[in-house]
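Could you join me in thinking about how sequence relates to backbone shape in a protein? Would you write everything just below, so we can both look at the same thing?
***
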Amino acid sequence: MSKEEIKKEESILDIQQVASKTEMFFEKNRKSITIAMTAVVLVLGGFFAFQFLYKKPREVEASNAAIRADLLVEMDSIRLAVQGDANFEGYEAIAANYSGTKVADRAHFWCGVYYRDIAKDYATALDHFKQVGFDDEAVSVEVTGCIGDMYVMMNNLEEGASWLEKAAKQANNSASRDFTGPLYNLKASKVYMELGNNDKAIALLQYVIDNYEKRSPEYGESEKLLSYLKAKE
């Protein structure tokens, strides 16, 4: 027998040994493997069932329910859009009935606006704003800022400053930075001034001066406040 034939025979034996060991492994662990595979199938099946048989139809249902409220918001009838009437569900009912949908996020946002601007119920507005989860970067910055504003209105300045600073950081790295960045840096700095934390206020104001254009309305005010705080040092 040639060396080549010997090597080929050894290779066949090696493959047979590996196959045999593999069969023994599966035979020994058949139950565990079956359970694991069944679990994977169930998880994947459950995921796709949730997405296509529950989540998507629920989004469509929520969108249909919100048609009238959406139209009323466009007509500046926020109170009716939120409260609804005997003929249609308002945003408050939609937020409660379709929790977890994108439509519910929108409903919570407009409920927050209503309770902030019209009802002047800042605690309820805060609760609604905290339940908003928009993917849109610019709107996410605004929602974070609204949460900060509500804490300030409720005289919880520490939380207010923290959330407004968070909004400022989000804004500084967002597509809407030139519009929202100076605004939330300035807002946060003012609350920190109220708290007597001038170092934080100076850092936020300096960021506006160093990173934003002079033509923004907040730039001039930031410049004045920064000069005032530095003169006090």
About this structure: Residues 1-61 form one domain. The two ends are 96 Å apart (CA to CA). The first helix runs from residue 3 to 28.
